[in-house]
Amino acid sequence: MGFLSRFFKVGDSKKKAKERLQLVLIHDRADISAGMMEMLRKDIIEVISRYMEIDESQIELELEKENKSVALVANIPIVKVKRNYRNIKTSFNKGE
Amino acid sequence: MNTRIIVVTSGKGGVGKTTVTANVSVALAKEGYSVVAIDADIGLRNLDVVMGLENRIVYNLVDVVEGSCRLEQALVRDKRVNNLYLLPAAQTRTKDAVSPEQMVELCEALRDSYDFVLIDSPAGIEGGFKNAAVAADEALVVATPEVSSVRDADRIIGLLESEGKKSISLIVNRYRSSMVKKGNMLDVSDVSEILAVKLLGVVPEDEAVVVSTNKGEPLSMGYSSPAAKAFRDICHRILGKDIPLKYPDENEGKGIWEGIKSLFRL
Question: Counting CB atoms within 10 angstroms of each CB, which of B117, B120, B186, B246 has the fewest?
Answer without folding.
Answer: B246
